[in-house]
Design brief:
The chain has 456 residues and is of the alpha+beta class. The protein is built from 16 helices and 15 strands. The protein has three domains: 85 residues, Sandwich (Immunoglobulin-like); 153 residues, no CATH class; 130 residues, Glutaredoxin (3-Layer(aba) Sandwich). The chain has a seven-stranded mixed β-sheet. A four-stranded mixed β-sheet has the order 4-1-7-8. Strands 3-2-5-6 form a four-stranded antiparallel β-sheet. Helix 4 packs antiparallel against helix 5, helix 7 packs across helix 8 and helix 9 packs parallel to helix 11. The protein starts with a helix and ends with a helix.
Amino acid sequence: MKKAWLLIAVIAIVSCKNETPIDYAIISGKITNATTSEATIYGVIDRDFRKKLTLEENGSFKDTLKAGSYLFSQGRNKTPLYVSAGDNITINFDAKDFKNSLTLSGKGSQASVYLIAKGGTEKELMGSGTGVYVKEEAEYKSIFLAIKVAQEKLLSEASGISDDFVAKEKRNIKYAYLEKLNRYQLYHSHYAKKKNFEPSKQFLSELETLKYDNEEDFNFSTSYKSLVTNHYQKKAGELAKTASIDRGLAMLKVGQTITHKTIKNNLLYEAAKYGITYTNNLEAFYNAFMAGSTDKNNNEKITKSYKALKVVAKGNVSPKFVDYENNAGGTTSLDDLKGKYVYVDVWATWCGPCKAEIPFLKNVEKKYHRKNIHFLSLSIDKAKDHDKWKAMIKDKELGGIQLFADNDWNSKFVTDYLIKGIPRFILIDPAGNIVTANAPRPSDKKLIELFDELKI
């Protein structure tokens, strides 16, 4: 009998040792009056993360998440979500009355409840709109200092939150305050319309002792991550000037010098993810990334982009589009435009930088009217915004050839050029071959230099 009990005990111990620890959280809930049949969870730190949740007919859902910071989104309704391994969080709300009906409950929900209250405090003290950025230094700093103090108080009064979260969140609140100070120059210059504005030296004195090598905070705080990114971007800007290279390539070279692996790999990938689609020196850009990055998954993603961009390198036959709707009537294909250069402007009605280029594009069109070049504006607006596209062409008196892509961002012409941001300009020669997949913008004097070089 004694041996039998001993055997049972041994089996129990072995079973406990072999039990896989829970490394995920469970999230569930119900959304009444949902506007769509799904919800989406976005990563806050890992911005590539996106998870779709299918809602049942009654609006209920259930799924799992790895530990981390997220944004739960359903239609226009959004709420922050922080989860730890082993949490079991329930999210309920009425989509028609989100603010008053939202409830988060269950194991581990307290951190998310705190984050909701924290966001409300900031919104209340900062005010709506961009008015805060017009304020002078002293008042601007006092507002965000008040937000910092209020959020620290809110955190100290919160209950049911782990000591680990509280410790990191205390630092995060400070980083958020410092990040607001760090952005003041750019934002105040823009919104107060003060060109070349510079804050006083004392204004940024609190950032002088900040260290940029804390991997734990980099993985927890978007504000700290922003401060670190900005720190190295400034270094890249200095290198770009001294070495006469573009900023994207400079950022990769600066990134190579970072000693902390997590921070280095993240900044290299963030710089390359979009930067590789804009560089005019693809080989140097790719080689600089690969020389610094040690993350296998990131390397595979950038290598995939590199191979796709090799296809649209200078001299190759341009990808084509067929029978895109022409605002002037009928349809137009790229082959219809052979015999002249084609300057393609990929844009959308919602894109601010795209609209800022319109006056410059009009001037270039006027200068090269009746010359050996077509000016083609390709809208990647969604189908639901088709009427907005038509209206803007009329209201802004847009010239050139105005086309509407067949599937917005997913149009084959757009994906073939690996376009991830707009405006994007492409120049194609009379034979249909690529001159450059990253042509200068109309506002850039280098565009005219390029046209002159080609004797257009």
